[in-house]
Specification:
Largest sheet: 8 strands, mixed
Structural class: alpha/beta
Shape: globular
Radius of gyration: 20 Å
Helix content: 25-40%
Length: 295
């Protein structure tokens, strides 16, 4: 069997707010991502999607659980050697394309920072060539390297964020709602760009979003999050054609339809979260790759 690129086992991320109150943002989430695959993570705002991405890349220290990336255990204390491999082979595209870019630095210096840290070039000329090539790959001009982030539109800034992640030639990219702040037409361009780059580089994506149509378009497999629990996971076809968990059914029923006749007949499936007791729940296998959270 082919070893998965990323294995997340029973990941928990809790934040202690006070002596008597702890926010349990992520509760025992487990999934795997294979090399060259796109795994979509969907759910409502506050369900724990971004927290999972930040825990995997170690912007947060996981409370409990095990994370294995490229055969390295990256949960717990990290050695300098392991941390360096992690930073080189895993990158993140952040949700807000403006706040994630330093307004005091030129685009070339923002993209080239990883190259500088890991010493991935021999001469300044080679550095400029690498930055120019990656800018062309994401649909920008090498001349844009001398501009500042505030001189770009939202879509262009997100392309810069993608270029910054790609320049390290990573094996996994965590895309944290990277299209939610963009216009619909720009969203399609960015998602198509990400698919083209994946075909070229064979990198894997953890695609975090709440736009189900985009997740369906780009993902090979999907995990559905609700209040920190992974309630259902399976292939894109299984999730959309045969959703089993009540929350997944409710989530899919809320997707608006472009056809006004169909939209008028669309029935929302209500989901009473208060009636769902997730204590001592377990994942039940219902197919080769389809799992659902049950009592």
């Amino acid at each position: 069997m082919i070893e998965p690129l990323l294995k997340v086992k029973n990941l928990r991320q809790h934040f202690k707010i006070s002596r008597n109150f702890t926010v349990k943002a992520v509760n025992g989430v487990s999934f795997e991502i294979n090399a060259g695959e796109t795994y979509g993570l969907v759910g409502e705002s506050g369900s724990g999607k971004t927290t999972i991405g930040r825990s995997i890349i170690r912007l947060y220290d996981p409370t409990d659980g095990e994370i294995i990336f490229n055969r390295d255990k990256i949960s717990g204390e990290l050695s300098n050697k392991t941390r360096r491999r992690l930073r080189k082979n895993m990158q993140m595209i952040f949700q807000d394309p403006m706040s994630s870019l330093n307004p005091r630095k030129k685009i070339g210096d923002i993209i080239g920072e990883g190259l500088d840290i890991h010493k991935l070039y021999a001469t300044p000329k080679e550095r400029n060539e690498i930055i120019g090539d990656i800018l062309k790959r994401v649909g920008l001009s090498p001349a844009h390297a001398e501009r500042y982030p505030q001189q770009f539109s939202g879509g262009q800034r997100q392309r810069v964020g993608i270029a910054r992640a790609l320049v390290m030639n990573p094996k996994l990219i965590i895309a944290d709602e990277c299209i939610s702040a963009l216009d619909v037409s720009i969203q399609a361009q960015v998602v198509n760009l990400m698919k083209d780059i994946q075909d070229e580089t064979k990198c894997a994506y953890l695609f975090i979003a709440h736009d189900l149509s985009m997740v369906k378009y780009i993902s090979d497999r999907i995990g559905v999050l609700h209040k920190g629990w992974l309630v259902e996971t399976g292939s894109t076809q299984e999730i959309f054609s045969n959703p089993l968990h009540p929350y997944t059914q409710s989530l899919l029923s809320a997707v608006p339809q472009p056809n006004p006749e169909v939209e008028r007949r669309r029935q929302r499936i209500p989901y009473d979260a208060a009636a769902a007791n997730y204590e001592n729940a377990a994942m039940r296998k219902v197919g080769d790759t389809h799992f659902v959270l049950t009592q």
